[in-house]
Amino acid sequence: MGVQVSGNGQLNVEKALKLFAQLVNNKVFLLTFIRTLELQRSFSMRDRGNVASLVMTALQGRLEYATDVLKQLLSDLIEKNLESKNHPKLLLRSIMNEGNPQIKRPEK
To answer: Is 92 a residue whose pLDDT tops 70?
Structure first.
């Protein structure tokens, strides 16, 4: 483990990480966690990419579960887009930009 903590602190960190891993494996928690982060104005595209990378790394042994979570998030995004009556091409652009923060937006 890369965290340097002395004494009982190390045991506390390990216990906390195990508990957080259990929470990440709870679909309701994970979806709520992601949605809550996305609502934060200070949560940048870079932050989204970093969190997404960490979550996918944590779930690499449970790809079916990770896919189910991604499907739910994508479904929510599509529903939100339909409610706002945006053009379908804008939805695709939104998905591509959120999924890959390195994609540069076309200049107008």
So the answer is: no
| 37, 51 Cβ separation under 8 angstroms | yes
Q: Which pLDDT tens digit goes with each residue over 38-82?
A: 899 999 989 989 999 989 988 999 999 999 999 999 898 888 877
Distance (Å, whole) CA 6 – CA 88: 54
Give domain limits for the chain.
8-99
Contacts of 21 (CB under 8 A, 6+ apart): 58
| Contact (Cβ atoms closer than 8 angstroms) between residue 30 and residue 55 | yes
Scanning the structure block, which residue is given the tokens 């690499």? Answer: 60
